[in-house]
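Please check our next protein.
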Amino acid sequence: MNLIEKIIATHSRYPSVKPGDIVDIELDVRAARDFGGANVVKNIVDHNLTIHDPSKTFFTFDCNPTGSDQKYAQNQQICRLFARDNGIRVYDIDKGIGTHILIHEGLAFSGSTIVTTDSHANILGAVGAFGQGMGDQDIAAAWAKGKVWFKVPPSVRINLNGKRPRGLSAKDIALNLLHIFGANKLLGYSIEIYGEEVDKLTLDERITIASMATEMGAIIILFTPSPEILNYSSQKAGKKITLVKADPDARYEQTFDIDLSRFVTRVSKPGKPHDTADINEVKKTRIDSAFIGSCTNGRMEDLRKAASILQGKHVAPGVVLKIVPATDEIWQQCLSEGIIRIFKEAGAMVSNAGCAGCAAGQVGQNGSGEVTLSTGNRNFPGKQGKGEVYLASPEVVAASALAGYITTPDDIPERPMTYTAKEKEIKPQITEAKTKASEEKPVVVEGRAWFIRKDDIDTDMIFHNRYLTITNISEMGQYAFDNLKGHEDFAKKAKAGDIVVVQKNFGSGSSRQQAVDCFLSLGIQAILAESFGAIYERNAINAALPIMTYKSIQPIDLENGDTIRLNFETGEVTNVTKGKSMMADKFSEVQLEIFQRGGLF
């Protein structure tokens, strides 16, 4: 049997397996991340399942280790509470990338079987383990049963012959393999890689290559552990690990003999990891940002190489360099070796350990029109943001961050490329004066009252910070009050022309304009309050959202749904439904002027 067949057979009830066989595999480790973890919990709870073996079950929070996204934060807490109730260990947001942690903790080693919600669980092939990413239902079943069904894949053997060119990185090896096989020529295969130079690959280098099996469409890239790596796994596991390797007469569907000596430094062009080019074809492509990290290149060796290039230098003007170590253990080692200082003095932003931009949960994302050079394994459109992403090795990324364009460590210019202002198009001055005056807005409005009997409704209750990336006012209305307990459905029920009536200190908190604009989006005519937050008051007046303050609402005996009339010039407030009136504070001269003008501008 070949390597994957041997691993699967030893974890099944069969003495041997072959491609196409469907067998139940006993699992040594069953894990879920913050991405998908809450859905795993939901499946278990909904189906009244129990945990087969909590000692083999883990959560790893790596997609959003900053807890900066409300949805991730909520999912993480769901998982934490479930873990407490079921005796499950959580590798929380301070630990780093889950697959790397499994290696560091001695949970993944030669011949072991691991499933997780991470599509790059096949990274574990770096230590000769069977790692597989699976969906929420699969993982929930694995947690409950301790096993999953699996179809034995066909295998290919790749022999990398010849000497490794000087300066050729592990990332370059992966990109050259992608160049040869593309995204689908080895679709569904298990790949084993052999060769004299392969035997010399370090654990970090094997992780880099194995991490890109998914981008090749492969089930996994497996390496037979070297004595050094086997010893590392034994130390981390606290027990002697027995080497699992392919039999001398193992069967492979195909064997590829590839000349390693002909590999060159390559870069993946935006959109497709397998669309690679010799770096000379894309040299001097200007970049806006650079990223070193991810499960592919956030290892200690990667960061040491980057530091050796960045030491004593500074990133090019206009370029942002983001660096994220794969695990906290690596982060701490960078700290003790002085590498963090080198990064900071070079002008890089260093974040805590985790996946970074790949999962859209940490640093690493880019904006529309931005060109990024990244060490990640994916550059699909939208995967790391709205801009364009090139993929390269840490050495190339570090060198390019200094240059301001794509280059190699041996070709960094003395002076970096700098951005120059574009020449502005000279337009003829408009001398024709406006002939049509703006229509004057009504100073008396009437509408249905939404009477919300609460003080201190802050801007997060009005328009939560998870929506702050929205810039189109027409899209903001749907989120008004969706974080105000008891009024989460306000936006669905509100109608254009309605008037909101609240109590003290409405709009306290942040300075966000969206907390005003969301009401304009819905067509709310005015807001009446006992008092407003200072910033909110200015924002509302400047946006021409009519606001008025009152001393007491009792004179008009207001109830939710009553029709009320407001006179901005006099300050009179009338409950039309009950025929009662009172006086509120009328518009100031400035407020009235801005209102009639339609806003500050």
